[in-house]
Amino acid sequence: MDKISIIHNHFNNIYKIANNIENILKEKNIKFKKGNYTNHYISINNKFKLQKYYIPVFTIKNTGDIGINIDKIFFEIPIKKSKLNTNKIKKIVEQFPKIEIYGYKNCLNDFYKNNDIEKLLLNIKNSHEKFIQFNLESEISTKANDIVNKFNSLSILIKT
Hints:
- The protein contains four helices and eight strands.
- The chain is of the alpha+beta class.
- The strands form two sheets. The protein has a six-stranded antiparallel beta sheet, covered by helices on one side. A two-stranded antiparallel sheet has the order 2-3.
- The relative contact order is 0.17.
């Protein structure tokens, strides 16, 4: 198969997943806005690269985003840093150990990821950020219903 066919099939799969997620969000009466956006980042060979191409993203009202990237599904959920405490962060990290925690304004400074919860919270409190972003990735092969359920579980844990 030539490169163009491989890319074509891969992007068609991404938008098929997006359509399935959209259908589930509608079935569950979840309010969302669907868009195709550029300027996300992807890690290639452990370096963040700016994406100038569009990817589908669902913005769930008052919650966060579900995005379908070329290699993963991602969930981004912001919260005011004043609402974070040691117990909340500990619960989030214990339940979702691969979660990334970084600044909302400066997402490339992933300096909050740390195993020491107290130090992590201190770094958050000492930052200039007003909002802290939580990001969790899921395999692109994950079923749409499982994607929505995992997003809901994470958002409930972060927002409550």
